Amino acid sequence: MESLPSDPQLVKGRFIKVVRDLFLDELRLRKLRTHELQSIGETDDVGQLQRALQKSLRNCRENSTQVVLALDEVESLVGDANDIERGGRDYVPEILGVIRALVQQNPNFSVIFSGITSAIIERGYLYGRENPLFSWAKQYYI
Predict the structure, then answer these.
(1) What three-state secondary structure class fits 41?
(2) What CA–CA distance (Å, rounded) separates 128 from 90?
(3) Mind listing the pLDDT tens digit for each residue in 10-29?
(4) Which of 25, 43, 44, 65 could covalently link to 48 via disulfide, CB atoms 3.0 to 4.6 Å apart?
């Protein structure tokens, strides 16, 4: 995720594109469903990405395929402690909520976050909204 732009206004769109592209590349290799993901772009919202991923993950489950999304350098998405207090990335709780929902709805889907921030696990609120991963996700120090 280190390739995300430093401008917080551009992060959401780039994140959507990066996740979409990662899924498209891997699902195509395995000849799994990609139709809905193909139409998702940087200007789409997180809900559209969620619906497309849900259909692809369901197809993966039907084909006995486990999916793991590993997101390194999560601080590029979340920002630093000062950012969290100031605001400017109100899309972060929305993205984390979508990820949580997809994990809960799909037993064949897991997500791994890594990076130098623990805010996505330890803070009850991010950017003025409840943190969907707070007291739900598990952290492991390596």
Answers:
(1) coil
(2) 8
(3) 899 999 999 999 999 999 99
(4) 44
Residue-by-residue DSSP string for 3-19: TS-SSHHHHHHHHHHHH
Distance in angstroms (rounded) separating the CA atoms of residues 130 and 48:
21
- What average pLDDT score do residues 106-118 get? 92
What the block records as the tokens of 100 is 């949580």
Q: How far apart are CA 2 and CA 19, in angstroms?
A: 13
Sign of the Cα torsion 127, 122, 21, 31 reads: negative
Report H helices in 30-128: 35-38, 46-62, 75-78, 81-86, 91-105, 119-122
Tokens of 130: 């409840």
pTM beyond cutoff 0.85: yes
Handedness of CA 72, 51, 128, 135 (dihedral sign): negative
- Residue among 47, 23, 38 nearest 95 (CA): 47
CA 72 – CA 142 distance, rounded (Å): 13
Assign 56 a pLDDT band (cuts: 50, 70, 90). very high
